[in-house]
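**Tokenised fold:**
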Amino acid sequence: MADDEIDYNIVFPDAVTSERHWQGTKEPVVIILGWAGCKDKHLSKYSSIYNEQGCVTIRYTAPLKTVFISESFGYKELSSTALKLLEILYDYEVENSPIFFHIFSNGGFMLYRYVVELLHSDKQFSSLHVIGAVVDSAPGSGNVRGALRALTATLGPKINPVLRCVLLALFAVTVFLLRVVLYPVTKYIHKNHYDALRERPPTWPQLYLYSRADQVIRHTDVELMVETLMQKGVPVDSFDFGSSPHVSHFRDFPVQYAQRCRDFLVACMKDSEGTETKKRHHVQKQ
């Protein structure tokens, strides 16, 4: 479904499916954030994993210019996008449902970073109840070669070869200067997504799905993030698919991928229900 401000799709499950899986409790709302250049027809395949589980799904992919240009130059354009994305929950009156994220690549993770910051700091969203997040093929940090591969794949084969070379050269120089050479200084103005969520991560459970065969996001970057979260006491798990390319784990391992996502969602719901029960008992004893 389209909005005048951001272009997203929302799917509601049928009542029978929702009741069968969640038995009277509010069904989760799964917010799926696509990779840069992702087409909705590709993202809808992931949406189906959760729709079949009786979940509401919201699909959104940030525009290329905000991922590759605005973030590279330190413009926080994605912050306003994150605000509009969270407001969708109130527009459809699902703000009291459990919220679950599924994030793809750095393009999705950059937007997720601003969503997390809003949830940390904006009182408007303090009542939202996030139960967990799956992170696919992310996050990466300071990998200029990987960023160039991502942009090359996003531009596609139809673009003029000369224009492609010019765009890639300009992008490489910009990223290398601002995000590598000058980053020790520029980080005080605008931290990248990786450092921002390493320093102040969300506390809900997280599952990182990655592959050491990924040519865009280094597996060591993902593993370092997971290690950092563990040290901070955040509930986190990870799985290395080993051979699948960037954002292709579901394509290469469809049954295993879908099962891991569903199992993690169910576990997050159970943990959330247990936490709520403890809170109610605590209130009753006071």
